[in-house]
Amino acid sequence: MADRIIHGHVGIGDTVTGPALVADDNFSARYDLNRIDGTFSREAHKLYGESYLGKVLILNIAKGGVATAWMLYEMAARDRAPLALVLNYANPIMAQGAAHADFPLLDRFDCDITAAVKTGDQVTVDPAAGRIIVHE
Amino acid sequence: MKLTDYEESIRAGDMGEPRRLALEHQIKVGQFFDAEDLVEISQVHLMADTESLGVAGVEFLERVAGYPKDERRTMVPTVTDPRGTDFNAYKRMKQQDDWVDLERRAIAAFQSLDVMMTDTCINYQVIIPPVQGEHVAFGDTGSSIYTNSVLGARTNFEGGPSALAAALTGRTPRYGFHLDERRRGTARYVLETRPQDWADWGAAGGIIGRNMGSYWEVPVIDGVDGTPTSDEMKHFGAAMASFGSTPLFHMVGVTPEAPSLETVFDGAPPDPIPITRTDIDAFYDSYGVSDDQLDVVVFAAPQLSLFELQRLGHLLDGRKVNDAITLIAATAPEIKNAADRMGITAKIEDAGGILLEGVCFYQMYAREMGEANGWKRLMSNSAKIVNILGGYGYEPVLSTMERCVDSAVAGRIV
Fold it and tell me: So where are chain A's domains?
């Protein structure tokens, strides 16, 4: 099958390719993650217990506090950041954290990105072009 | 983005590398949100706890601090959010020495940038509250939502790196809630019950925050029976921002940009969503537990005002916290000084409570601190903190300040 291209807004960071980890849930590094072992630690989160390491993390919206802006940089320095973050709607904190860490971030698609991509799909996130490619 | 001659000069490096890097950061963020230019700001509130910074973040600050003084000093007054460590209490909290060392390094770096270590998330109550229409760059979601909503000043959520960039350039990208059009109402709620307590206000804010679909939604609250106090607005906004990533609400007849329902919406107001006493009770129940076990009671997030501390002192006066329970309250250093002078600290600590200054519980390596102290079941009157701490391995319970204190004294949830 041909690759599928989904268009969003121009993002931040370099192009990366990897397996998707997807949920119709929201995201905050402080609220949701165990940043030591690289898993989701909030029991109420749909990805609870899942490792996000090496994954393109695809979720609905950014939520919660401002800590993620520092944390993405710190997580990347310890190889404890996901491969990229893809959201239906980012907030300034995610954009500021991505800009500080040169971390791939993409949002504002022409569809619900959490429904358009499945966990395990191999995807390329191309922030400069504002698109995600699903390799099928 | 369109830059002024002055900003082009910063970008060219004429004012040093830290300001050049700060401006490049702001351009990246501005382009992400389609900002057309930058807006000058009058003050910065900087989130700076070392749990978030980590070693890498502190090393970044130290690199900035290594530049000459005229290149590294802030261009507008810049104050800090809570730290991760109270140096007078870290041993009681069983915090690790390496965290304390990191904290000292971060403070030294910030001070060399001329950042004022106010260490408070309630800068709008303790330091200098902005006025309506003033553009600022505030970190801490609770501080931002109060500033936008209650004061009518203008800020986006400015995380640490962007707040630092704003401090170094004296401006921030003009997008989001700096713009008139982003400040219009998008959803409407009616409070059909008057919240009776700070925790009730937090619950009501949490309910609305949970419903918000993104950062860009602006809830309008109608039907409020009587003007809320500053502390009630504080809990309401902090919870809304925490549950929903929401930076602005309007309260009809109360907040400055909502004199009437008609003025705050473009077009006809949407159908209202009611918030009832049943909804608030259900919110409490969502943090219910099946037994009465209790380890720690926390009053923080936001830090307590002088009025909240006075009430806590009254509730604890002449009583004794059960030996099996730890009771912690956190406030700003300026308020701690006042509480010391006024005998409020003595009431809390004579009862066995701990009053921390310049920190907030969830910013103190809460996971590791909980494990070191054997804390799992936590009780608080802060909807914001119960929202956060679920991800840190705690079993949080939300209740009123009175019931939290009664439980701390009894040694079990009452």
Answer: 4-135
Judged by a CB distance cut-off of 8 A, whether residue B47 touches chain A is: yes
* Alpha helices (H) in B260-354, listed in sequence order: 261-264, 277-285, 306-316, 333-342, 344-350
Please answer yes or no on whether B215 and A34 come within 8 Å at the CB atom: no
Average of per-residue pLDDT values in chain A: 95
Q: What homologous superfamily is domain A4-135 in, according to CATH?
A: Phosphohistidine domain (3.50.30.10)
DSSP SS3 for A14 = coil
Same-domain check for residues B280 and B312? no
B213 confidence band (pLDDT: 50, 70, 90):
confident
Percent of chain B at pLDDT exceeding 90:
97
Interface contact B244-A41, CB threshold 8 A: no
pLDDT band at A65 (very low <50, low <70, confident <90, very high): confident
Q: Are residues B128 and B233 in the same domain?
A: no
* B191 in the same domain as B148: no
Q: Which domain holds residue B279?
A: 184-284
Residue where a domain stops, chosen among B155, B180, B205: B180
- Closest CA relative to residue B407, chosen from B238, B291, B300, B306: B291
List, in sequence order, every residue forming a beta bridge with A34; answer none if it has no partner: A39
pLDDT digits (tens, 9 = 90+) for B330-352: 999 999 999 999 999 999 999 99
Q: Is B288 on the interface with A (CB under 8 A)?
A: no
Chain B contact set for A63 (CB, 8 A): 243-245
User: Which CATH number do you get for residue B99?
Assistant: 3.30.499
Separation of alpha carbons B63 and B70, rounded Å: 15
Residues of chain B neighbouring A67 (CB-CB closer than 8 A): 47, 49, 51-52, 159
AA letter at B346? A
- Choose among A64, A67, A96: nearest Cβ to B29: A96
- Tell whether B11 and B115 lie within a shared domain: yes
Using DSSP bridges, classify how beta strands A33-34 and A39-40 pair: parallel, antiparallel or unpaired.
Answer: antiparallel
Confidence at residue A64, expressed as pLDDT on a 0 to 100 scale? 76
- Best probe of the A interface among B25, B29, B32, by most A CBs < 10 A, is B32
pTM score of the predicted model: 0.96
State yes or no: ipTM above 0.85.
yes
Task: Check: CB of residue B120 under 8 Å from CB of residue B126.
Answer: yes
| Total residue length of chain B | 414
Q: What is the rounded CA–CA span in Å between residue B357 and residue B362?
A: 14
Into how many domains does chain B fold?
3
Check A65 against B388: CB less than 8 A apart: yes
Would you tell me which residues 93-122 of chain A have a C-beta closer than 8 angstroms to some C-beta of chain B? Answer: 93, 95-100, 105
CA B214 to CA A38: how far, in whole Å? 25
